[in-house]
Amino acid sequence: MTATRPLQLLVVGGSAGALEPLLAIVGALPPALETPIAVLLHLSPRQPSLLPQLLGHVTSRRVREAEDKEPLAPGTIYVAPGASGSL
Fold it and tell me: Which CATH number fits domain 10-83: 3.40.50.12780, 3.40.50.300, 3.40.50.180, 3.30.420.10?
């Protein structure tokens, strides 16, 4: 029998057209899932991203923009800085 390890990080990404499915996915995540989540969504770098606020409306998890070398906390959603598509 092989023991399974808990997820260490869940990564979800998409293009600008993926916003609606992304909101549905995040809103449907089980509350007991403590795995940190990284979100990468390709959006215009010329405008401030409202993605953390939008995600915050569909989940009770903590949602924040990721910072360089920040330790990952359980139950937290990290949005790629500027939603630039890289984390």
Answer: 3.40.50.180
